[in-house]
Design a protein that fits this description.
about 130 residues, mainly alpha
Length: about 130
């Protein structure tokens, strides 16, 4: 899958990013009870789900021969807009300022280790589903 800037692929990223960010916002609005408190459960869950879904997507694309437009629209656009690294970073800073060091460690560890594990599980599941 080659990467090149074309107006078509650029628009696929833009549209997908708007869709992904809108889905993330809708989840946060629909589940405010999980956004409240000191631990950012919504962001963690979204990042883990997005990691799993990108693993499934890229595994399926690898098995099926790939499709650049789908990779760009779904992976870069929707899942890129859906997952929340900048929010993740802000929430870590907020937890640090509140001196909630255990929450910082759990959040970073859960996001990074959990994210890599979810990508791997999604990737392996989609490749095995031949």
């Amino acid at each position: 899958m080659s990467a090149h800037l074309s107006p078509y692929l650029f628009s696929m990223v833009a549209i997908g990013g708007a869709v992904g960010a809108s889905i993330r916002y809708a989840i946060a609005v629909a589940l405010p009870v999980f956004a409240m408190g000191t631990f950012p459960f919504i962001t963690l869950a979204i990042n883990l789900a997005g990691s799993f879904l990108i693993g499934l997507l890229y595994g399926w694309l690898a098995r099926s021969g790939g499709n650049e437009a789908l990779r760009v629209f779904l992976g870069v656009g929707i899942l890129g807009g859906f997952t929340t690294f900048s929010t993740f970073s802000w929430e870590i800073l907020t937890l640090i300022e509140r001196r909630e060091i255990l929450s910082v460690a759990l959040y970073i560890g859960g996001s990074l280790i959990g994210g890599v594990l979810m990508v791997a599980v999604g990737y392996w599941l989609s490749k095995a589903a031949a």
